[in-house]
Amino acid sequence: MIPLNLRSEVGRLKAVLLHRPGCEIEAMTPENAQHALYSDILNLNIVNEEYGYFAGTLEKVAKTYYVSDLLAAVLEHDDVAEMLVRKSCNLDGCDCLADELLSHDTKTLARELIEGFEYRPGKDPKQFAENRYMLRPLYNLFFTRDASSCMYHRALINSMSFDVRNRESLIYKAIFEILFETDTMRAQKQDAQARTEGGDIHIVKDGLLCIGNGIRTNRKGIDFLVEEFRNYDDTFSFVVQELPHSPESFIHLDMVFTFLGPHRCMAYEPMIHKQGIFSNMHTYVITTSNDKTKTREYSNILEALKHVGVDLEPVFCGGSDNWIQQREQWHSGANFFSFGENHIIGYRRNSHTIDALNKAGFEVLRAEDVSTGMVDPWSYKQCVVTFAASELPRGGGGARCMTCPINRETVNWDL
Fold first, then answer.
1. Does the bond joining 247 to the residue before it have cis omega, within 30 degrees of 0?
2. What is the rounded distance in angstroms from the CA atom of residue 69 to the CA atom of residue 311?
3. How far is Cα of residue 268 from the mean position of the Cα atoms in its chain?
4. How crowded is the C-beta side of 354, counted as CA atoms within 13 Å?
5. Which among 90, 215, 278, 329 is placed 20 to 30 Å from 251, CA to CA?
């Protein structure tokens, strides 16, 4: 296994963890979609085609691991399998199912832990009949960023804000500890009310994190990160951006702000100018040094980052028109994933955002051409790889949400 080494958002990608969506997303109905944290239901056939070009692009540029394969490998360890099954069943209130699941082979068990286990009329307790599933599907697993975050040489197992996602954290903890043999950390060990999610956590460089503070990552979760990393460097800074708690398109920082390169970013302009729904959202920097902690507020996230030595030129999601900015942000128009410095991937549907990137010097490439080897993205100084997406955005996330980077090359910040 490639060791964890993640010291920026933009260093050339060497390894990434993905999950190809499966039958679990078709277990949603209009009745349970809200519980599953979706605003709509997805069509798996279309999702498979869209995700195929996205994953195929990343397979061309880095080592890709898939959660289902790693979970099956983890389940080869009998003690780990028993722990995962019994804790999963306990969380879903189906302890009576554990022994049966443990009798299955590892590939079948891995599939059941992800796709769920259905109620069987006449055999299982009737209280499961209404929800159809005894062990519920992991509807959100393809957003691999949320439940686990690689940070420097460790893995943060995130303390999820909604119970429907707690079982994801169990799986990632086992994968990182058993297969990657790395230390894990979790905010809830310090405070039961602390919450963190990967979409809110951006590793800028050594000694600097950028964090969203909203409905998914709370202040207690940020306090945990401050305590956990205050001794990582002599001085450690945390740029914190407050986020609206609604609507759902603002659930994470990476829905309004992502790094494209060492000196470029994608941003939702109303957040920068503190307009509309962001008019009362604060931006501040927490700095720890010599056991002292200082907090200072700034006008916006760009000014805060400039204060700590990172000067960014923004490209605005949706271009310059406020109405289009709102439309494209809703479908993850600011949510790009960098697989190298100024080499990014995102949804093609956000055409005004793609045009803005093109005007900023990014060559526009098609994932269909990159994934099949017809085009080499590394032959371009700057590029955005676009992939078709009509169904995937209905899940409420974009390219960054669907990736958990494990290893990147070091960025030379002096260039």
1. yes
2. 40
3. 18
4. 16
5. 90
Q: Which residues contact 323 (CB under 8 A, 6 or more apart)?
A: none
pLDDT digits (tens, 9 = 90+) for 324-381: 999 999 999 999 999 999 999 999 999 999 999 999 999 999 999 999 999 999 999 9
- Distance from C-alpha of 136 to C-alpha of 93, rounded to nearest angstrom: 10
Task: Name the H helices within 150-280.
Answer: 166-174, 219-229, 269-272
Amino acid identity, residue 182?
T
232, burial (CB in 10 Å: exposed 0-12, middle 13-18, buried 19+): middle
Q: How far is CA 160 from CA 83, 137, 340, 380, in A?
A: 20, 16, 29, 38
- As a whole number of angstroms, the distance between CA 266 and CA 256 comes to 8
- pLDDT tens-digit readout, 284-340: 999 999 889 999 999 999 999 999 999 999 999 999 999 999 999 999 999 999 999
37: its two tokens: 């944290």
H-helix or E-strand containing 118?
strand 117-118
Cα distance from N-terminal residue to C-terminal residue, the chain: 31
Strand partners, 15: 63, 407
- Length reported for the chain: 415
What's the pLDDT at 18? 98
Tell me the two tokens of residue 189.
Answer: 């060990």
Render pLDDT for 59-92 as a digit per residue (tens, 0 to 9): 999 999 999 999 999 999 999 999 999 999 999 9
Question: What are the beta bridge partners of residue 387?
Answer: 347
Q: How many CB atoms lie within 10 A of CB 292?
A: 8
- The angle formed by the CA atoms of residues 269, 404 and 399, to the nearest 5 degrees, is 40
Residues linked to residue 6 through DSSP beta bridges, in sequence order? 152
Closest among 72, 135, 128 to 104, alpha carbons compared: 72
